[in-house]
Automatic annotation (TrEMBL):
<dbReference type="InterPro" id="IPR016163">
    <property type="entry name" value="Ald_DH_C"/>
</dbReference>
<keyword id="KW-0560">Oxidoreductase</keyword>
<feature type="domain" description="Aldehyde dehydrogenase">
    <location>
        <begin position="17"/>
        <end position="479"/>
    </location>
</feature>
<dbReference type="InterPro" id="IPR015590">
    <property type="entry name" value="Aldehyde_DH_dom"/>
</dbReference>
<comment type="similarity">
    <text>Belongs to the aldehyde dehydrogenase family.</text>
</comment>
<dbReference type="InterPro" id="IPR016160">
    <property type="entry name" value="Ald_DH_CS_CYS"/>
</dbReference>
<feature type="active site">
    <location>
        <position position="250"/>
    </location>
</feature>
<dbReference type="InterPro" id="IPR029510">
    <property type="entry name" value="Ald_DH_CS_GLU"/>
</dbReference>
<dbReference type="Pfam" id="PF00171">
    <property type="entry name" value="Aldedh"/>
</dbReference>
<keyword id="KW-0520">NAD</keyword>
<protein>
    <recommendedName>
        <fullName>Aldehyde dehydrogenase domain-containing protein</fullName>
    </recommendedName>
</protein>
<dbReference type="GO" id="GO:0016620">
    <property type="term" value="F:oxidoreductase activity, acting on the aldehyde or oxo group of donors, NAD or NADP as acceptor"/>
</dbReference>
<dbReference type="InterPro" id="IPR016162">
    <property type="entry name" value="Ald_DH_N"/>
</dbReference>
<dbReference type="InterPro" id="IPR016161">
    <property type="entry name" value="Ald_DH/histidinol_DH"/>
</dbReference>
Length: 483
C-alpha cells in the first residue's frame, strides 16, 4: 500500500524537506503505517522563518476587518469539510470519529471565529491625564511566532494558537506533533483557499528534537506558544532563555475530581465516567484522581466500574464507540507500565487493565486499552502523582472538606479540578482553595473561550483565552500625548 506523503507548507506552497528524509506515522487503531512525515531540519525551519518574516510587514498592517474576514472564511471552510477532517483526525490519532466530529473539528472552527470576533470588537484603553493630556494603549503585533502543539487534540490545539496569533497581526511557523500531522496538513489548503496571504502561516513537520527545538532556539522567533508535556516545557524554558522569548506553556496535569456525599449522584457519576475516559483519557483536563467522600464511596465506585465496563472500546469509525485506540505503541506500553506499577504499589484493579479481548481481526494490532480503575493506592504512590495520560484513573475515599482540598492540592500539577456538591457555599469555599487554573463545579470540560485558560505550578506558565491570548500575541504599548 502506498503511503500518503505529507509535505511542509511554506509560502503557501507544499515543499519537500530539505534533506529529503521522512518517517512513518502510524494508524493507532490498526498499528500500521499510514503516512510519511517530513523529518524537517533546522534548514526547513529557516525557510519557514524567512517566509513568515517576509509576510510580517504587510500582514501586520492589514486591517483588523480584513484579517477577521479571512479568519471567518477559514472557520467556514473547516466546517464545510467536517466529515473529512473528523475521519482524518480519528485515523491519525485513534479517537472515535464521532468525538472528532462533535468536539475537535467544530472547536477548531470556533477558535477562528472567536478570535475574528474578538479583534473586530476590541477597544484599546484610553484616558485623560489631568494637567498633562491623554494616554492610550496600542497593541503591536510582535513578529514571527513559533507554535508547537501535541497529539491529543491535534487540530483543536493547533488552531487555538494559530487563530489568536494571526488575528493579532503576527505570522507563524507551526510544528504539529510528529504523531498527528494529518489535519494540520489538511488545514494548509484551507488557509490558502480562505485567502490567507503567502507566508502568514507556515507548517514544518517533524520531530521535537529536530524541527521543534530549531524553532525554540531560533534567535529571531521572539515568542513561543507550546502545549505539551511538562518535561518538554522545562527544556523549552531552558533553550529559549538566552533569547528572552515570550513564552506561553500549557503543560501536563494530574487533575482531581472531588465528589462530595451531597452531590447530584447520577450527574456526578455519569460525568465522571466521561471525564475519566473521554478521548481514551488523553485530554489534559481528564480527572485522573477521583476523591469520593466516604459515605458514598462504595456506591460511587461500583457505579463507576459499571459505567466503565459499559463503554465500548474498538473501531473508531462506529458511531457508538466510546474509546478508540491510544496514540502510539510507546504510549500504550507506558500506560500499561503504570497499571503494572499500580499493582506493585498495592492497588486493586477494579476493572480494565487489558487490551480488550473482543477486538475484530483488523484491530488486533491496534493500541486499544480497556478503561481502568485502580483503588487502594495511597496519595504518595507514583500512580497517584504522575501523569499517565491514558484511560486509567485512581479512586480514593476522604472524610472532610479540608482533607479533600489538601488531597487535591497535593500535586506538582495545577491544571484543572472538578467539584461535585449541591451545597453552594461549600462549592465556593472549595473552588477558592483549589490550586488549579480551572475549577468546574458540577460540570466538566465546559470551555468558555472568553475566559483565561492555563495551569498553575508545573501545569504551565501564562494564560490564553479571550484578551489573555491577545495580550500574549501582542506587545501592549502606552502612548501619552501632551495637550
Ligand atoms: P510532548 O511534550 O512530547 O510534545 C509536544 C510537542 O512538542 C510536539 O510537537 C513535539 O514534537 C514537540 N517537542 C518535543 N520536544 C521538543 C523540544 N525539545 N523542543 C521543541 N519542541 C519539542 O507532549 P505530547 O506527548 O505530544 O502531549 C502530551 C502532553 O501534553 C501531556 O503532558 C498533556 O497533559 C499535555 N497537554 C497539555 C494541555 C494543556 O492545555 N495544558 C493540552 C493538551 C496536552
Amino acid at each position: 500500500m502506498s503511503l500518503l506523503t505529507i509535505e511542509n507548507f511554506i509560502n503557501n506552497e507544499h515543499v519537500k524537506p530539505s534533506e529529503g528524509s521522512y518517517f512513518d506515522t502510524f494508524e493507532p487503531a490498526r498499528g500500521v503505517a499510514h503516512a510519511l512525515i517530513p523529518n524537517s531540519s533546522k534548514a526547513d525551519v529557516e525557510l519557514a522563518y524567512k517566509a513568515a518574516s517576509a509576510a510580517f510587514p504587510s500582514w501586520s498592517k492589514t486591517s483588523r476587518e480584513e484579517r477577521a474576514k479571512i479568519l471567518y472564511r477559514i472557520a467556514d471552510l473547516i466546517e464545510a469539510r467536517l466529515e473529512e477532517f473528523a475521519q482524518a483526525e480519528s485515523k491519525d490519532q485513534g479517537k472515535p470519529v464521532e468525538l472528532a466530529k462533535t468536539v475537535d473539528i467544530p472547536r477548531a472552527a470556533s477558535n477562528f471565529r472567536f478570535f475574528a470576533g474578538r479583534i473586530l470588537h476590541a477597544v484599546e484603553e484610553a484616558g485623560e491625564l489631568a494637567g498633562i493630556g491623554f494616554s492610550y494603549t496600542q497593541r503591536m503585533p510582535i513578529g514571527v511566532a513559533g507554535l508547537i502543539s501535541p497529539w491529543n487534540l491535534p487540530l483543536y490545539l493547533l488552531t487555538w494558537k494559530i487563530a489568536p496569533c494571526i488575528a493579532s497581526g503576527n505570522t507563524a511557523v507551526c510544528k504539529p506533533s510528529e504523531f498527528t500531522s494529518l489535519t494540520a496538513y489538511m488545514l494548509c489548503s484551507v488557509l490558502k483557499e480562505a485567502g490567507l496571504p503567502a507566508g502568514v502561516v507556515n507548517m514544518v513537520f517533524g520531530t521535537g528534537m529536530g524541527a521543534g527545538q530549531a524553532i525554540v532556539e531560533h534567535p529571531r522567533i521572539p515568542l513561543i506558544s507550546f502545549t505539551g508535556g511538562t518535561v518538554t516545557g522545562a527544556k523549552i524554558i531552558a533553550n529559549s532563555a538566552p533569547h528572552f522569548k515570550k513564552l506561553s506553556l500549557e503543560l501536563g496535569g494530574k487533575n482531581a475530581n472531588i465528589v462530595f456525599a451531597d452531590c447530584d449522584f447520577e450527574l456526578a457519576l455519569k460525568t465522571s465516567v466521561r471525564s475519566s475516559f473521554a478521548n481514551q483519557g488523553e485530554i489534559c483536563l481528564c480527572g485522573s484522581r477521583i476523591f469520593v467522600q466516604r459515605p458514598i464511596y462504595e456506591k460511587f465506585l461500583s457505579g463507576l466500574v459499571q459505567g466503565a465496563k459499559a463503554l465500548k472500546v474498538g473501531d473508531p469509525t462506529l458511531k457508538d464507540t466510546d474509546l478508540g485506540a491510544v496514540v502510539s505503541k510507546e504510549h500504550w506500553e507506558k500506560i500499561v507500565g503504570y497499571i503494572e506499577l499500580g499493582k506493585k504499589e498495592g492497588g486493586t484493579i477494579e476493572c480494565g487493565g487489558q487490551k480488550p479481548a473482543s477486538l475484530e481481526v483488523e484491530f488486533q494490532d491496534g493500541y486499544f486499552l480497556e478503561p481502568t480503575i485502580i483503588s487502594g493506592l495511597t496519595p504518595n504512590c507514583r500512580v497517584m502523582r504522575e501523569e499517565i495520560f491514558g484511560p486509567v484513573v485512581t479512586i480514593y475515599a476522604f472524610d472532610t472538606e479540608e482533607e479533600a482540598i489538601q488531597l487535591a492540592n497535593d500535586s506538582e500539577y495545577g491544571l484543572s479540578c472538578s467539584v461535585w456538591t449541591e451545597n453552594g457555599r461549600r462549592a465556593r469555599r472549595v473552588a477558592s482553595e483549589i490550586q488549579a487554573g480551572t475549577v468546574w463545579v458540577n460540570t466538566w470540560m465546559a470551555r468558555d473561550l472568553r475566559m483565561p485558560f492555563g495551569g498553575m505550578k508545573k501545569s504551565g506558565l501564562g494564560r490564553e483565552g479571550g484578551d489573555h491570548s491577545l495580550d500574549f500575541y501582542s506587545e501592549l504599548k502606552t502612548i501619552c500625548l501632551a495637550d
